[in-house]
């Protein structure tokens, strides 16, 4: 019985003739394999996982935008400035949000293409 590295993150125990695998020895378990795959840029999510990531990101953007706008309104109210006078400054805020959403959406689409190509190869 010999042990050799089959993949960069997995150790297999092979038969003495080297023809078949007896057992897979995962040094870090499932979590470590997932982390290694994630940081090595191997596809780790499914299409459902990408959809969940997208909705979580959308929710996060809504919460952050609400907090930012409410903080701005509160600061303006404390200084006695009407929000109508400050409203042209909302354009960069809204533009930044739209750009972030578009970039994340593009990256998720690229990830979906990579996953579909990865699944068709295996």
Helix content: 55-70%
Number of helices: 4
Separation of termini? 29 Å
Estimate the mean pLDDT confidence.
76
Order of helices and strands: EEEHHHH
Instruction: Give the low-confidence spans.
Output: 1-7
Radius of gyration: 24 Å
Largest sheet: 3 strands, antiparallel
Alpha-beta content class: alpha+beta
The count of strands amounts to 3
Which geometry do the CA atoms define? elongated
State which percent range the strand residues make up.
5-15%
Domain count: 2
Looking across the biggest beta sheet, what order are the strands in? 1-2-3
Characterization of this structure:
By secondary structure, the chain is α+β, with helices and mostly antiparallel strands. It has 2 domains: 38 residues, no CATH class; 75 residues. It has 4 helices and 3 strands. Strands 1-2-3 form a 3-stranded antiparallel β-sheet, with no helix packed on it. Helix 2 packs antiparallel against helix 4. It is elongated. The two termini are 29 Å apart.
Main attributes?
single chain; 122 residues; alpha+beta
Nutshell version of this structure?
The protein has helices spanning 29-39, 47-79, 83-86, 90-121, and strands at residues 2-7, 10-14, 21-25. With 122 residues, it is α+β, with helices and mostly antiparallel strands.
């Amino acid at each position: 019985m010999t042990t050799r590295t089959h993949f960069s993150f997995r150790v297999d125990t092979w038969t003495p003739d080297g023809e078949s695998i007896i057992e897979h020895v995962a040094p870090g378990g499932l979590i470590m394999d997932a982390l290694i795959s994630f940081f090595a840029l191997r596809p780790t999510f499914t299409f459902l996982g990408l959809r969940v990531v997208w909705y979580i990101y959308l929710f996060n953007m809504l919460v952050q935008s609400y907090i930012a706008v409410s903080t701005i309104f509160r600061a303006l109210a404390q200084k006695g400035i009407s929000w109508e006078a400050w409203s042209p400054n909302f354009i960069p805020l809204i533009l930044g949000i739209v750009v972030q959403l578009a970039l994340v959406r593009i990256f998720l689409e690229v990830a979906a293409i990579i996953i579909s190509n990865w699944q068709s190869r295996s």
